[in-house]
Each structure stands twice: as C-alpha cells, then as structure tokens.
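Is this the right way to post structure tokens for a design question? Let me know if I should format differently. Anyway, here goes:
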C-alpha cells in the first residue's frame, strides 16, 4: 500500500470511531444526566526514510459537551437536578466519581445512594445518612438537606478544574483525574431530573455526513487497490 492509502486508512479509522460515538449518543438520548460526546480530529506529520514527510489524520480524542440539559419534574423527593455547573460526588469501590444523574434512593442502612448502590457524598466528602423514621425530605437550592425539619447536611457539588481531565465510566459517571473544587453558584432542584443533552437531530445529521465521508474514503481505497492490481498485471504481461 502506498502513502496515500495509509493516509486514508487513518482518516477511515477516525470516522469509524466518530460513528460509534454518535450511535452511543443517540442510544442515550433519553438517559438521565447523559453528556453528549464528539470526536476531535487532529493532523500530525510522519517522517519517512525514503521520501517526504506524510500528513496523517487522527480522531481518537473524545470531547464531552457540558451544555445544560432540560430539567424534568418527577415529584420524587430523592430526585435532584442541577441548574448550572457542577456534579454530584459519588463514592465507588474504585474511588470518587462525579455525575449529573441525580436519581437517588436509600440503602438498607439509611444512606443516600445511587441506584447502583454507591454512596452520595456531602460537601465534606462523607456519606449522607437519612434517619429511618423520616417522612419528609427537603433539599434547598444550595443542597442543604433536612429530614422532617432536622438539618442533616449538604449535598456536595463539585467542578473539575480542568474539564478535559475527566473520563467517562458507565455512561453517566466520570472518573476525575484533576482537582475537584466546590461549586457555590449552582442550584439544586428537588423533584426534578436533568435530561440528556443530546441533540438527536444534529446527531443524525452528523451520522449521515460521517457515513458519506467514510464511503468516499472506501471508494478511494478500492480505486487504489484496482490501480495497483492493473499495474502489476501490466508489468507481468510485459515480461
């Protein structure tokens, strides 16, 4: 394969990755707290020993959208939506994680947990305990939690210093590899959940564009393959 073929293959690989991400976005268009992803394409130059350098394409950097999703009213006193920036802080067996999905429940021990059983942490990084005899839970806009009028604590909202240094795990959960700072300006809305921020129409349009670009690249590779076959056949006939 000549250099043009390798260049096209790197582009095809990036387009395939983007197609998979778009498909995942569309599949999660109704997932609470889901953050839409995209692909960042970059160009890099590869030196060769036999000729000029070659410009190659790479599309393996994922870009997460942090646009606000719509808040949908559920009426559940353990559903929380975030207006503004920030994430809920979650404790998992593999360390702290952050998420925008605020659909929580109570464990048998009375701790506020995700539906996967992970503890939701307060502003001090500790689990939030709800007394078993509680009949009414109230959460203020700043995250302050009260049970039947008794103050229990405050939901922890954090924001990564560098949004590029968080990595998706499990669809709506992210692993932070940067410092997490407290968020003070965001507002927590009880009885609401944040919808996915996926723009389905734009995603379907982009899927069509990527598919056409991929087909064009495949057509070029097929043409190059046929050209090479014809050249080899012609050389063989001359001999």
């Amino acid at each position: 394969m000549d250099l043009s073929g390798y260049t096209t293959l790197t582009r095809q690989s990036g387009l395939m990755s983007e197609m998979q991400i778009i498909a995942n976005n569309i599949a999660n268009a109704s997932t609470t707290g889901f953050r839409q992803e995209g692909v960042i394409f970059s160009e890099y130059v590869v030196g060769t020993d036999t000729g000029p350098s070659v410009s190659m394409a790479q599309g393996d950097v994922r870009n997460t959208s942090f646009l606000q999703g719509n808040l949908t009213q559920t009426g559940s006193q353990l559903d929380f939506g975030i207006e503004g920036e920030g994430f809920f802080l979650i404790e998992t067996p593999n360390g702290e994680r952050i998420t925008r999905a605020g659909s929580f429940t109570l464990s048998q021990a009375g701790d506020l947990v995700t539906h996967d059983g992970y503890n939701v942490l307060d502003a001090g990084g500790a689990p939030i305990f709800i007394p078993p005899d509680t009949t009414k839970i109230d959460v203020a806009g700043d995250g302050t939690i009260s049970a039947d009028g008794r103050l229990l604590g405050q939901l922890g909202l954090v924001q990564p210093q560098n949004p590029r240094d968080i990595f998706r795990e499990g669809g709506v959960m992210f692993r932070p590899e940067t410092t997490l700072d407290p968020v003070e300006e965001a507002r927590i809305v009880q009885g609401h959940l944040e919808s996915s921020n996926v723009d389905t129409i734009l995603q379907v349009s982009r899927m069509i564009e990527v598919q056409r670009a991929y087909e064009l690249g495949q057509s070029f590779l097929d043409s190059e393959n046929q050209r090479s076959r014809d050249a080899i056949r012609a050389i063989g006939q001359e001999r």
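Format looks fine. Someone answered above. Worth noting: DSSP finds two helices and 18 strands in the chain. The mean pLDDT is 86.
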